[in-house]
Design goal:
single chain, alpha/beta, 6-stranded mixed beta sheet, binds adenosine-5'-triphosphate, cytoplasm, CTU1-like_ATP-bd, tRNA binding
Amino acid sequence: MSPPLHIPASKLCESCRATRALISRPKTNQKLCKTCFLSTFEAEVHATIVSTTLFTRGSRVAIGASGGKDSTVLASVLKTLNERYDYGVEFVLLSIDEGIKGYRDDSLETVKRNAVQYGMELVIVSYEELYGWSMDSVVESIGKKGNCTYCGVFRRQALDRGAERLGINHVVTGHNADDIAETVLMNLLRGDLPRLHRCTSIITSSTSSPIARSKPLKYAYEKEIVLYALHKKLDYFSTECIYSPEAFRGSARTLIKALEKVRPSAILDIVRSGEAFSRMIPSQAQASSAKLSQESGMSNCTRCGYLTSQELCKACTLLDCLNKNRPKMAVEVEAGIEDEEASSSLRRGMEAMKLAEEGIVN
Ligand SMILES: Nc1ncnc2c1ncn2[C@@H]1O[C@H](COP(=O)(O)OP(=O)(O)OP(=O)(O)O)[C@@H](O)[C@H]1O
């Protein structure tokens, strides 16, 4: 097709050369029209899914749905791709109600609408029913600082339990390239090779859980996710959590945003560098990324039955701190450690707490 004469060549979409470019892609600076932007975004997610053989025909997969932009875009794109390329997957929305008034109750209303819009089943599991504590009551006990430690551990287990209820063994989340770049940077700064390996993997499974996790938006920029949501007029909830975010992650984010300004590819560069470093990590360190190696032996938490290498799972250990009115103890030892997996420092802290309680140390 010859380019339209009324649009100057410099303003044409660089992909179809037939329409005016409306979007400058944050990832590449490529100038695209709306249709080409949407199809390029979808094609990239499809390429990620196909190149990693993420889904199996006939399987059911839960989408961790918070009502925010990332998981809403994830649900919308997966529905589109599943229909377009006939993946043969049944997607279900799985939401965790952390019990945060004025935030999660509102965002869950969005997820309920999404379930109707996308024709997907929705299951909601709450902290209150699983743990007897809502995040509002945790924050009342602990204060705003450090509450993310509790929330992260509780959410991880809640997603597993929700998936188990659905008879599903694969949960996809809306983690995007910006999230992964932040985690890569944090793990590099901490010299934490096992976690570096884990955070760069598109799919993670561990002996601590029968449920695999994956991140189909791993290479999608946050800014492009927002653009996709806006141009597709998706119904999503845009308020940030009312409780404070992790300070270390916030600093990593600020640094990456500054780098992105001078070098748009910086986010993807960091993700790719993380992957390259990860390939060089000795397999022994890779295996310990789950801190749950087969050698240590997995059993069921003596209290709740969740898989763990210790007597109590991490959530029950944290609940002990809350119920014994020592909530800060868990956070102090966990400070700066990403919530994705059980950390030995938390365990050491708990051991210290036990000793302190027994009057052995102060
Ligand atoms: N309450 C929840 N219920 C179900 N899944 C969740 C919940 N909170 C987070 N997730 C999953 O974890 C991913 C990353 O969560 P994070 O808290 O970093 O939120 P986010 O980056 O703001 O994502 P979103 O825009 O989807 O809220 C989400 O995209 C979603 O898939």
